[in-house]
Design a protein that fits this description.
By secondary structure, this protein is an all-alpha fold. The protein is 83% helix and 0% strand. It contains 4 helices and no strands.
C-alpha cells in the first residue's frame, strides 16, 4: 500500500518536483544549522526530511529512466555490467 507522501509525489509535475527538492534541501540546511547552534525541539525531523529528499530524488530518477529509449537503456545496462566486472 502506497503511503500518502509517495502518492502526493507521484502527482507532481517535473518542475514542481524539482522546486520541491530545492525547497527541502534548503530547509535541511537551515535545520542543520539551527540544530548546531541552538538545538531543535525534535532532531528526528532532520532524518525525516532527508528521507523525503531521497523519495523526491528517486521519483526524478524513475521518470528519467522511464523517458529513456530502449537503446539508451541497453547501453546503460552494458555500462553497469562493466562496472561490476572492474570491482
Amino acid at each position: 500500500m502506497a503511503s500518502e507522501k509517495y502518492t502526493s509525489i507521484k502527482g507532481l509535475e517535473d518542475d514542481a518536483l524539482r522546486d520541491e527538492i530545492f525547497a527541502a534541501e534548503t530547509e535541511l540546511q537551515r535545520m542543520k544549522i539551527q540544530n548546531a547552534v541552538t538545538g531543535l525541539e525534535n532532531p528526528l525531523t532532520i532524518k525525516d526530511l532527508r528521507r523525503d529528499i531521497a523519495r523526491l530524488r528517486t521519483e526524478v530518477r524513475a521518470r528519467e529512466l522511464a523517458a529513456m529509449t530502449p537503446e539508451q537503456l541497453a547501453k546503460r545496462t552494458k555500462i553497469r555490467a562493466r562496472r561490476r566486472l572492474s570491482k
